[in-house]
Write a structure and sequence with these properties.
single chain; mainly alpha
């Protein structure tokens, strides 16, 4: 029996865990640098939010590239930052929060018809 196979698999898993931690640390580092730079340069909210969106979505793209799988929560957060940044840059006169609440409610209602259940039976 070859005992080296499980060791290689365990090594890959621990390497992925270490890589995930490094990507997370890099993402947070970039986030703090960007926020600090945006504040120092007195950038608009729209530009600031777009920068955070790029960092968040870029981190998820890196996770996917390295075979770690993206985290749907952070993809959604990144997309919300993107929408918020564009919303601010174009100075849309409708408040974003009510629009997001309507979309969230519609998504919940649509989930009824897609067959996805939220509770166990």
């Amino acid at each position: 029996m070859d005992d080296s196979v499980p060791d290689k698999q365990e090594s890959r898993v621990s390497n992925k865990g270490g890589l995930a931690q490094k990507l997370d640390a890099a993402g947070w580092g970039l986030f703090f640098i960007w926020v600090g730079a945006a504040l120092l340069m007195d950038l608009s909210w729209g530009v600031g939010l777009l920068g955070v969106a790029v960092i968040t979505l870029g981190g998820q793209a890196a996770r996917t590239y390295f075979g770690l799988g993206s985290q749907i929560f952070w993809v959604v957060v990144g997309l919300l930052f993107l929408v918020g940044g564009v919303w601010e840059l174009y100075r849309v006169e409708i408040s974003l929060v009510p629009v997001l609440l309507i979309i969230a409610g519609a998504a919940l209602l649509l989930s009824i018809f897609t067959g996805q259940r939220t509770s166990s039976q």
